[in-house]
Amino acid sequence: MILEDQRVLHEDLERLEQAIADRVLEEPKHIRDRLSRDHQIARFLSHIQDQSTRLLKIYEDGEGERTREIQSISTGDPFESFYKELTSIKDFHRRYPNEPVENLEKAYKRRSPEENVAAASEIDAMFAGEEGYGRFFDLTTLHEDYLNLPGVKGTRRLTYLQYLDTFDTFTSIRYYDKMTDQYFRYVGSLAQYLESFMRRTKPLEDLEKLFGSFDREFEDAWEKDQVSEWTKQSLQESGPQIEGTGEGIWCPDCEKEFKNENVYKSHLTGKRHIRAAEARKARGGTADTDGPSNGNSPPGNSGQRLKERAVAEREFRIHKLSSAMQTERSDTRVNVERKQGMTDRERQQELAALYAEAAEPVGGANPDGDSDSDGEEKIYNPLKLPLAWDGKPIPFWLYKLHGLGVEFPCEICGNFVYMGRRAFDKHFNEPRHIYGLKCLGITNTTLFREITGIEDALKLWDKITRDKKKEKTNVENIVQMEDADGNVMPEKVYYDLQKQGLL
């Protein structure tokens, strides 16, 4: 019956809304549990859209079946309609006796700890180990692809940390290197990874709308010829010069001008020139035609312009995606720097601790429903060591290495005590210390490093002030003036007497 289908859809929508409300009230502590909850809510929202579409088609009643069914129930014999429907139901179950019945209440209820294990395994398979459940990027493979690009291979190798800072800037790669298939695949893979990373970490955001805005913004900029590095004017100017300044000898392979003929001849046998000549030959360029058009077609060619548009669109998308995930990008850099100072054994231990912490709430759920605050108090920290990023005390050897047990008080900062030499050295450039110096009347704070006492700071400032006044007086007395009678006097005295009319 159409009306029964309509009722089931309404019930399903109400249960979905209640299931989403129940899960929104949850506040999982671990990032894996939060991602599992968000992805489950995203699936519920998608299911709501599908069911609402079906329900809307029923209400629209394009073929008139719902209207006919309502008329048959309201005008005919109600018992006849009832027994007719009952007969069809019995006939259906007689033909399909083992047909399962969908239990909507069970479908959307909260998962048990055993069912959470399967959900957690889905999140584990969704992220690589280096990504830390969506907190960091894993661009190691793309970094290797970047180093093997035609315009980058053979130049100074960028480290992974440098690549994290510059992977969304493409100014260092020349035009005809960007027109290669290898570069096109690289920017496509990078854009696809960033888009996939955002979909996995932010399942509840309207990403389709965000990506659509990126496409519209690029379309407008491309039609107005305002895409950075891809305007027609910049493409014409990006081509290598053919004759240079005309004062020396021009090498079209190296795109360089030589003032001396002997230097030009000697560089022809160098490895760099040979590689440049081979690369230019592979591009099909000649001394007269090599330019920013891959040596075959000018930048204004329609086919070439379409390829330029495809590459520019991917570069534009990468820039927008990286701008939208600046937090993850900075966290990735900090994490890479931290791991570079660790041994392989320490990295494995940290990864094992992360997975163990992620699995602990699943297997160790409290059936009585007690709060988890008791578990936080069980952290064994008798030495009062600082806590690391995972909420656990740092190793004692690291505590001793950085000297975190040494106290450095600063009277200028209101007798604030800094733990460790690093924090003490860093605080001289912080607002607290600078504000304390300004309260003492000291404006030039750069000369007061390592000074923590108020009396010492005032003495030094008084000495600096007196030295400046003395220096100014000496400078004024350097210039000597002579009057008409031959009397020599300082310049200031001469002008004072002149103003008084005595000279």
3D structure, described in words:
This protein is mainly α and 503 residues long. It is 60% helix and 4% strand. The chain contains 23 helices and six strands. It has helices spanning 2-24, 31-60, 65-75, 78-95, 104-107, 113-126, 140-147, 160-166, 175-178, 181-201, 207-223, 232-237, 261-267, 271-283, 302-324, 326-340, 344-363, 373-376, 396-401, 421-426, 431-439, 454-478, 491-499, and strands at 249-251, 256-258, 407-410, 416-419, 480-482, 488-490. A two-stranded antiparallel ribbon has the order 1-2. Strands 3-4 form a two-stranded antiparallel ribbon. The protein has a two-stranded antiparallel sheet with strand order 5-6. Helix 2 (31-60) packs across helix 6 and helix 10 packs parallel to helix 15 (302-324). The longest helix has 30 residues, at 31-60. It is extended, with a radius of gyration of 37 Å.
Protein topology:
Blueprint (H helix, E strand, L loop, with lengths): L1 H23 L6 H30 L4 H11 L2 H18 L8 H4 L5 H14 L13 H8 L12 H7 L8 H4 L2 H21 L5 H17 L8 H6 L11 E3 L4 E3 L2 H7 L3 H13 L18 H23 L1 H15 L3 H20 L9 H4 L19 H6 L5 E4 L5 E4 L1 H6 L4 H9 L14 H25 L1 E3 L5 E3 H9 L4
Antiparallel strand pairs: 1-2, 3-4, 5-6
Helix pairs in contact: 1-2, 2-6, 10-15, 11-15
Shape: extended
Question: What is the helix content?
Answer: 55-70%
Q: What string, H for helix and E for strand, traces the elements in order?
A: HHHHHHHHHHHHEEHHHHHHHEEHHHEEH
Could you tell me how far the N terminus lies from the C terminus, measured between alpha carbons in angstroms?
120 Å
Class by alpha and beta content: mainly alpha
Backbone CA Rg: 37 Å
- Number of H- or I-type helical stretches: 23
Weakly predicted, low-confidence segments: 239-243, 285-298, 361-376
Report the strand count: 6
